[in-house]
Model the fold of this input.
Amino acid sequence: IAPGARAFDFTLRRGEIVGIAGLDGQGQDAFVRVLAGINEAHSGLVEVRDRHGVMHAVRSLADAVANRIAYVSGDRKREGIFATLSIFENMVMPLYREKRRAGILGIIDRATLGTIFQREAENLMIKFGMRDDRITSLSGGNQQKVLIGRGFAMRPDIIVLNDPARGIDVGAKAELYKHLRAFAAEGKSVLYMSSELEEFIGFATRVIVFRDNAPFDAFDGRALDPKSILEAMFGQTDGSGLAGVSGLTPGQDVHAGIAAPARASGDGVRVAVTIPDDIRAGLDARKRAKLVEQAHATPVTASPRPALAKPANGRNPIRVVEFDAETGQARSLSR
Done:
């Protein structure tokens, strides 16, 4: 996502609400903008799987919109509102092409757009006089609600939010979280970057902390602790939530001696540790976890996190396997 930054893999799954955190300037803003097609990645590829299972590259905002990705910015003045347009136009303008009346060139179906506008305005409790008033007639918080409503109005499969709750009141935040939960419950995906750690509590499925333009640590949403997230933001954790071997590819051989992570579970987390069958069967993962296992087992005692043993020949290849926590089956991805 930036020149000289470490390469990494990231997967956003259906039904997830993934929180993104980090100190200012650590790459999290660039990351969400790349996923939303606002910026192009310096290297690598962003792909989205459509409803038919076909993969499509996202290299631009047009690609993102075509693939049902909506973006909501918290910087409404710089990349959000159109100051000379009305409240109504600011919310529904992205739908103009879709909602032209069939057979009548250039005529917008304002009745349909009006229904969409009213629904989103009520959902987010937007306070306004007339919908045709300029958006600058609204308070900053209500302007932000219009931008959030614009994102929902596009009926996306993925919504990317870049500090969206900045400046909105507590009640509106609660409504936003409620709608995002319902959105995810439909099998859709949410990527939510915030500068306020409290926003993630009881809301995010998992939280990823960025440092130095790459993921540094990750946390399970069911047991979030703002203190731990803050420590990760300052580099005071071991990055174990992401496993110290992130970046491995299927079939890749690596040297032994990599420290094992603190957590041997997670949704989509790679883990550098030998997992015995009894521990594997009890792994607490919601869907699928990426496990990195030694090709030749090393004894595991009470702790499922020993360092990988280094054999006499100095090499101990490990392989990447895909583990399905629901069935308990592991499938080798080695070539």
The CA atoms of residues 23 and 233 lie 6 Å apart. The chain has two domains: 17-233, 239-335. The radius of gyration is 22 Å. The chain has nine helices and twelve strands.
